[in-house]
C-alpha cells in the first residue's frame, strides 16, 4: 500500500478492496460497519427462518425465485434444502461465519445439477471399483 493515509480516509466513506497479484483480494472495512452488516444478516436470517416455519408456501415461492436450480430437486430433497438453508443461515449469523452458507448452496446446487441430468444421475448410481472398505448407503 503506497498511500495508507488515503486508504484510511476512504474507509470513512466505504470499504476498500485491495487487489493483489497472485493472491486473493483483501477487503478493508471499519469494524463498526462490519458489525452492522453482521447484525443485519442475523436479523434477515431469523426473519427468513420465521417465514419458513410460519408460512412455508410463501417461503417456498421465495426459494423458487432466489434459487431457480432448486426446481430440479425432488420434493423431499427440496424440503431438506429449505430446512438446512434456514438453520445454516441462523447458525452462520450466530457465529459470524458465512462460509457454511456458501458451502451449503454449492452442495445443494450440485445435487440439483445431478437431478437435472438423468444420464449423470445413472452414472453416479453405478458402483465404483475401488480398494478399501465398502461404504453403506445413507438412510433416507
Describe this structure in words.
The protein is 64% helix and 8% strand. It has six helices and two strands; from the N terminus they run αββααααα. Strands 1-2 form a two-stranded antiparallel ribbon. The longest helix has 24 residues, at 31-54. It is extended, with a radius of gyration of 21 Å. The protein starts with a helix and ends in a 15-residue tail after the last helix. The model has no long low-confidence stretch (mean pLDDT 90).
Quick overview of this protein structure:
The protein is mostly helical and 140 residues long. Helix content is 64%, strand content 8%.
**Helix amount:** 55-70%
What is the string of SSEs from the N terminus onward? HEEHHHHH
> In whole angstroms, how far apart are the ends?
54 Å
Low-confidence stretches: none
**C-alpha geometry:** extended
Counting DSSP E segments of at least 2 residues, the number of strands comes to 2
- Content-based structural category: mainly alpha
Strand order of the largest sheet: 1-2
The biggest sheet, with number of strands, parallel, antiparallel or mixed sense and barrel status, is: 2 strands, antiparallel
**Average pLDDT metric:** 90
Radius of gyration: 21 Å
Helices, by number, come to 6
Beta-strand residue percentage: 5-15%
Entry keywords:
140 residues; mainly alpha; two-stranded antiparallel sheet; extended
Write the layout of secondary structure elements.
Blueprint: H1 4-11, E1 16-20, E2 23-28, H2 31-54, H3 56-66, H4 75-95, H5 99-116, H6 118-125
Antiparallel strand pairs: 1-2
Helix pairs in contact: 2-3, 2-4, 4-5
